[in-house]
Specification:
The chain has 227 residues and is of the alpha+beta class. Helices cover 37% and strands 15% of the residues. α2 packs antiparallel against α3. The longest helix is centred in the middle third of the chain and has 52 residues.
Length: 227
């Protein structure tokens, strides 16, 4: 599922003639080494940065030579070229920011699932089995007074294995992005925890067919580790 940002960067001569934008969206796919998101047609981040540096250098040399020869200030075209350089540099900075933000989200998701897995192991030690799921991704490990019910993400995981309340997680982690959530399934030999990663170039990224909200779940953690 692509997450689009509605803005574009124009090459000024094309813009002045009503041409199309060079970069019209930023999506999850821009992070893939196989994607053609670069303004200059390179398929990865390094190519994009190199292409940007080359264009900026060429334009700067042209402007400096023009000023040296004519010994005067900027013309309108030169000012437009300067604006183009600024926009290109802003595009690079924006891309790096979005990429870093998504990597940070994914790191938090992996850490959260590891935390939940530890709580499930402790629960299993007391109850001799992992908690059931509620068929909707919830973990039935919270005591309601009349039995175990699905816990709410972000709330404590507390149950009574021997009649005494035991807290297995002080706060069940939830996805760092609104509209996305973790998903739990009890299996015959353990459990599976799912999260939806934003960086499709992550080595652990693998689509599962399970919904994690706005994204399809693409990261799976079991009692035996990352699947």
């Amino acid at each position: 599922m692509a997450e689009n940002f509605g803005w574009c960067v124009y090459w000024l001569p094309s813009w002045s003639a009503g041409g199309s934008c060079l970069v019209d969206t930023w999506s999850e796919e821009v992070r893939s080494n196989n994607s053609s998101w670069s303004i200059f047609g390179f398929g990865d981040r390094r190519g994009f940065v190199v292409g940007t540096a080359v264009v900026v250098l060429v334009l700067w040399v042209v402007i400096m030579k023009s000023m040296a020869v004519k010994n005067r200030g900027f013309t309108l075209m030169e000012l437009m070229i300067v604006v183009a350089i600024i926009m290109i540099l802003a595009a690079v900075g924006f891309s790096n920011y979005i990429f870093s933000l998504k990597k940070s989200h994914d790191a938090a998701r992996k850490s959260d699932l590891a935390t939940i897995a530890k709580g499930l192991e402790t629960f299993a030690n007391d109850f001799t089995d992992y908690p059931d799921d509620d068929d909707a991704g919830g973990i039935k490990a919270c005591d309601s007074g009349a039995g175990l019910v699905a816990c709410s993400w972000g709330d404590p995981m507390t149950a009574k294995p021997n009649g005494t309340a035991q807290t297995y997680l002080s706060k069940i982690p939830k996805d760092p992005v609104d509209g996305q959530y973790y998903y739990y399934i009890k299996t015959t030999d353990g459990f599976e925890l799912y999260a939806g990663l934003e960086n499709i170039s992550d080595p652990s990224y693998e689509l599962t067919g399970v919904s994690c909200g706005d994204l399809e779940c693409s990261y799976t953690l079991t009692q035996g580790g990352v699947k």
